[in-house]
Amino acid sequence: LLKSVRPAPVSFDVNAKFLYQERFWMGLSYRHRDAVVGLIGLNVNSLLTLGYSYDYVLSAVQTASRGSHEIVLGLML
């Protein structure tokens, strides 16, 4: 993902997600000069997914944040 919003400099994200037996998934994400993210989850059924991710901060915000936890509930349309 390439992001360009003026007046901020151009930034990018790199993401990878791996699916195991059409049910479980895990992935990694890198936000340029900002964070590394690990994520895991499962496809509950064909309509619903449940996931968890942890953002490890790399930027100057690191002095105020030790990262963030996220729980994601997904609806597949």
Plain-language structure description:
The protein is mostly beta strands. 0% of the residues lie in helices and 61% in strands. It has a 6-stranded antiparallel β-sheet, with no helix packed on it.
Brief sketch in words of this structure:
By secondary structure, the chain is mainly beta. Helices cover 0% and strands 61% of the residues.
Keywords, separated by commas or semicolons:
mainly beta; six-stranded antiparallel sheet; 77 residues; single chain
**Biggest sheet strand line-up:** 1-2-3-4-5-6
Number of strands: 6
Q: For the report, how would you describe the main beta sheet?
A: 6 strands, antiparallel
Number of distinct helices = 0
Shape: globular
Our estimate of the beta-strand percent is over 45%
How much is the average pLDDT? 92
Weakly predicted, low-confidence segments: none
Helix content: under 10%
Give the SSE layout:
Elements: E1 2-3, E2 11-20, E3 24-31, E4 35-43, E5 48-57, E6 68-75
Antiparallel strand pairs: 1-2, 2-3, 3-4, 4-5, 5-6
